[in-house]
Amino acid sequence: MSKQRLTHEHRCPQYRGTNRKSHAEFVEDLKSKRDDVIIISKYVKALEKAKFRFLKCGHECDITPAHILSGRGCPECGRSRRGESQRLSMEIFLERLHKIDSNLVVKGDGIYINNHTLMPLHCNACGYEYKISPHDVLSKRGCPNCHRACTSFLEQFIYHTFTHILNKSKVISREKTL
Ligand SMILES: [Zn+2]
Ligand SMILES: [Zn+2]
Asked: 75 C-alpha vs ligand 1 centroid, how far in Å?
């Protein structure tokens, strides 16, 4: 801010007037800008918190008057809106989880916070429990224990089949020793 402007502010009573509103002036100003919120405590100055009541929801909150004039909404309702979007994310997550592995369920009070916060999962098929971030679970193939069991079963199957064939067929076993 230039020195010139500062001296102007000091000299100009009108500017000082808008900078330091009285309670009544603020009420008028607020009325002309918004009809969804009223001030219910005494206005001190633009950057000192005052109590406001939001008429749509009835919430009463301490907010900086300057923020109210610049259009700030009810912080209480903002909080519950965030809760709402979190509930929605949880539903979307559960839906995707079900598609990936319908045996996987979120354990206990596990709740979706974000893509990287670990969630406790329980596998209904094998009882395996583990923690994994939604990002990882959605990019993988479901219960790691079931998949391990599945792989080792397949490996065992191949192993036994080959041993069986090798024992029976001398040609193959001879070829193998060569
Ligand atoms: Zn509210
Ligand atoms: Zn499993």
From this structure: 6
